[in-house]
Amino acid sequence: MSREPTDADRYPTLSAAGLAMLQQMREHPAAPIFRNASGNRLLADEVTALRGYEREIICARFEWTPDQPPPWLQAHVTEVFAQVPYYRAQAMPAAFTDIAPVHRGDLAADIARFVPDPVPLERMINFRTTGTTGHPLVLPSHPVVAARYLAHHKRALQRFGITLAHGRGQMGVMLLGMQQRCFTYVSVTPTMDESGLAKINLHPDDWRHPEDRARYIDQMQPEVIAGDPISFAALLELPVRHRPQALLSVSMALSPGLRQALAARFGCAVLDLYSMNEAGPLAVYDDAAGGHVLLQPRMYVEILGADGAPLPPGETGEITLSGGFNFCLPLLRYRTGDRGALAMAGDTPMIVGLQGRRPVRYLTADQQWINNIDLTHALAALPLSRYVVHQHSDGRVALSLPPAELGYSAEATRCLRAVLRGQPVDVIALQREDKVLQYSSDVAGSSSPPR
């Protein structure tokens, strides 16, 4: 847009009750400093369609098993090869398994080639992901795609007997971050009668008074609190009295110890979701089933070996995706970089032994922990195609850059030393050409908050 969006742009169907909810969240005496503005941008007919989509997803059955692809797969392949420039430039393979897999680096190189031609650009949303693989990525989306996440979260909650009930005048969802720099905002959810949604940052710098963090959560009483292991570890340190219906851990692997500590403290279900920006919520961990049970009936999952060939059920390999609900980015044999094996949980496929992305914390020179996302923000202004940050046990940090980008060494070192508050930084050449593990550390307690 050529002007700053207004609330009418951000919330096209906003009622007086929805406006009051926004004001309550923004203007509460204990409210944080909301540094950004965002909204659902949903039109009235889209809200109606989304309610139907939620009802369909919650009860939809999977049409495939680990050894039998879904009946809709060939139609998906045909459509993608006809509409997506990256695939249209290739000949249609004779068999599905002949399609060359792609990975995050392919998307990062030219994301526009993966967007179907029929997708209208007027209301497309583009957002940058921080990632963990050395490929910062701009992903195409749409207000309807963003709103579809809720349907799959509801499916996950329903598996544990939880049905969301909050609506008008109540806060439905609170999203937590724990970063030096975090996108924070308020919104409302039209399909939940404009219940409130707030993204807050638990870092003390985003609050007028540090004690307001617990006070705001207790006053808002969100029905569900979502976050990652780092923000949930921070939540455990606050004197919060409110007990939500559920905690949803997204984007990073949740350790069993932290999950148990959260459940004991808040007396509610703690759901460990396997989710990623490229595909949305994929699965939820079910201890009784013995794995992460899949959530998207229109997402086909393969397990590939190092040579790219499909592995039989029960064998561990790379999780690879085809399908999905983002019509701006239909996936076709997308290698996630995560690992696991396929099995069945009743009539639903699941991933066993998921080895996904774990949160990594870095120790600053003054012995404070910071989120790996803070390092991403620190380097975001530099035109780096990829990089690796590793912290040695003595605190010293090694930054690996591609040989062609070593000219940015001095500036990158300055950026990292600033966020790490003076920790020594060494720059070395990155030798690997393929996917890399972007963040790692040898410092005790870096892989998960100590419990």
UniProtKB/TrEMBL annotation:
It comes from the Bacteria. This is AMP-binding protein. Residues 204-324 form the AMP-dependent synthetase/ligase domain. InterPro entries: AMP-dep_synth/lig_dom (IPR000873), ANL_N_sf (IPR042099), CapK_Type1_Caps_Biosynth (IPR053158). It comes from Stenotrophomonas indicatrix. PANTHER family: CAPSULAR POLYSACCHARIDE BIOSYNTHESIS PROTEIN (PTHR36932). Pfam families: AMP-binding. Gene3D superfamilies: N-terminal domain of ligase-like.
